[in-house]
Amino acid sequence: MLYLLGILIEVAVLFYLERKAWGTMLTPLNILMLPYVAVLFISVGMSGHSGFVEFYYPSILLWNVGLVFFALPSFLLAGYAHRNGYEVRTTVISDDTLPRIFVVVGVVLVGMMMLHLFSTVRSSKFMIGSDEFAEEFVGFGFWGHLKHFCSIMLMLYIFYLNKQRRWLWLLIIPLMVVSVINMVKGAIIIPCVVGVMLRIASGKTKITPRLVVMVAISAVAVFFVTFLLAIVVVNEIAVNEGVVLWIFQRFVHYFSSGTLGLSMDMELGFPDRGPFTVIWTPFINIINQISGNGEVLSPVNPTYHFTGISLTNVRTFFGTLFIYTDFFQFALYTMGLSAICYTLKLLSVRFSNLFTNTIYYYYCALLAMGWFEFYFFHLDVIETPVMIILLHVIYGLVGRTFTIKSLKTV
User: Per-residue pLDDT tens for 335-361?
Assistant: First the structure.
């Protein structure tokens, strides 16, 4: 109870100070810590029941320490901004005109991905819903990069959606199908989270209990759909009460796999400690490709723990960061990443355009998944911002003269 009370008090104090400093809930620290606390209590509630292992409460201390380090740049940058008269509270995105070039790009993307899907179905010996099919479909190469671009356009279409643009569902749904077939739940959730946060930042959508419930239901639906694909389509098993219970257990396992994975890892003395270079995997891989080394490193943790329901190799944001760092590296990296995120926060307010905000909220979405895993050692953290910048350049060259104006919002 003391461990839980300690994290609750810390989060409450940091949340209050964060609101005072920035005047909004949509800050990197809040987006990192609030989902973690919610998932933590799910994990604690299920531990020791329904087959789940017991929770090791000292693992919470790692988040106690990590959140303090992450908060320091927030308060320092907020103080600097206030002293110099920089605006930090305005979050409204300035433009709601939908460039026709974005519609053209969306139609081309959907057409290409659907043709590629049909081609993969004909040529593959695996079924849709399997990891092997997902790998063949968009797991690597040109189609893997195009899948990332589809995710960016999905973020933007969710932002642009309103009553006058219901037809955007014709682009949103196929792009969501691409993500579902990819079978990576984080890749399904993150673009939608970015889109929702962009809508909140623009004033299009308000944070209400109804929105929270809808987001929660959508997350559950995504999970059940992906597992139903694997069970019903791939394994050809009829849906019954046993299957539903099995999926529910895996659903709880998924949401608790990071916190329970860290819990078990700490209790076992962190048997998966590794080198600091793992955290820099995307940069090392880029350098290797440029230098002709050719070696491609994988940041995926090879050590799995059994939670009582299934296996997990994820350790939450601070857990994964900890196993690949010493204390000094842990503190320095945490504060450095926080400083980058809060600098993007200031830039998103300063420029208030959709592209800067999309980059900012993309990094926030990665933080929002911190209850599950540390996402900043994947190539996406470099590739996605670069693609958004290129899209901004295209918009600057041709997009401004081809727009669909609609200022009415949901």
Answer: 999 999 999 999 998 888 899 999 999
